[in-house]
Amino acid sequence: MGLNPWAVAALFAPAAVFAAVFLVSFLNEPRQFRNAIWFMLLQISLIGAGLIISEQEWLIVLAIVAVGFAPFLVVLFLIANSVSVIRREGLSLATMLPGALAFAIVLFLALFIWGLGAGLRWLTNLIGLALLEGLWFFFSFAALLVYSWVYRTLPRKRRYDYIIIHGAGLDGDRPSPLLRGRVDKAVELWQRQKRHGVLVASGGQGGDEVVSEAAAMRKYLIEECHVPEGSILMEDRSTTTMENLAFSKKIMGARSGSGPRAYRAALVTSDYHVFRASEYAHKLGLNADGVGSSTKGYYWPAAFIREFIAVSRSHLGPYIVIAILWLLLILADHVLIPWFAGGF
């Protein structure tokens, strides 16, 4: 039995609201984390309405079962990926991230089951807080994963005055494979716009590097990519993504003017890093688009987890709000409700 038009309209009303909010936010500034949240809410509301309208109960059951099994499937995937990336890249904090996340999920599930059985009220309350924070963590993780893919695949037919290449480590005095991918992508973009604009090699010298990343990129651009010296600028002081952009902005501003529309730049980095670099550019008032070079599939999960943690550190507000609401509920349960109950 089909639903009447008013019922269908009511089901799709949340999706319409989220779509409107997302479009306004996106058109105003696509380089914002909140766009990822609105876009994910839009997708969830559309899928939910679609499942109800389909009147196929098995689809709803399948969705519930998929959500229930998701943590276990994620744990298996993360463990397998951690083994793969450590085997290929060696043991480091970055390569251990998938395994560490898998361990955290397993530990939480074990504590959750044990806490429910133990009947300890304080532990149950703490587990409730962890559950709420964890739900936001995984929701925002999925939201950023989807939106970052959407953002970096958007078609951009622009001519850039500057193409900033973000540093990424060296092999001796030569760019590492990851960095070569970024440089090659930048050159490809530069050639596609008929060699218009200037390439900005951005990266300082790390403690274990024999030259600056900017110098290594400049040498590679001239000798391997046959880019004229006059089409290359060097920024060789930065050690972080934010410094890459801030110091490059000063160089470009000195050359073309510091107004918000004095020039347009592209930020070329690895695909997993595009959104964070673009968000930082927005914070700095830099008129720039992110462009991503491809990353090996086995390395992608570890790299994106690191990116998500970095982005989350700049957006701790929701975690704080969740903790405050949880604390208010605990106070109400332990203080206010017993107080009112004792008064009657």
TrEMBL record:
Signal sequence annotation: none
UniProt cross-references to Gene3D superfamilies, sorted A to Z: HUPs
Domain of life: Bacteria
GO cellular component: plasma membrane
One GO BP annotation of this record: peptidoglycan metabolic process
Residue ranges occupied by any DUF218 domain in the UniProt entry: 161-309
CDD domains: YdcF-like (cd06259)
Pfam families reported for this sequence: DUF218 (PF02698)
Transmembrane segments: 6-24, 36-53, 59-79, 91-114, 126-150, 316-341
Keywords associated with the record: Membrane, Transmembrane, Transmembrane helix
PANTHER family xrefs: INNER MEMBRANE PROTEIN, PROBABLE PERMEASE, MEMBRANE PROTEIN
Protein name: DUF218 domain-containing protein
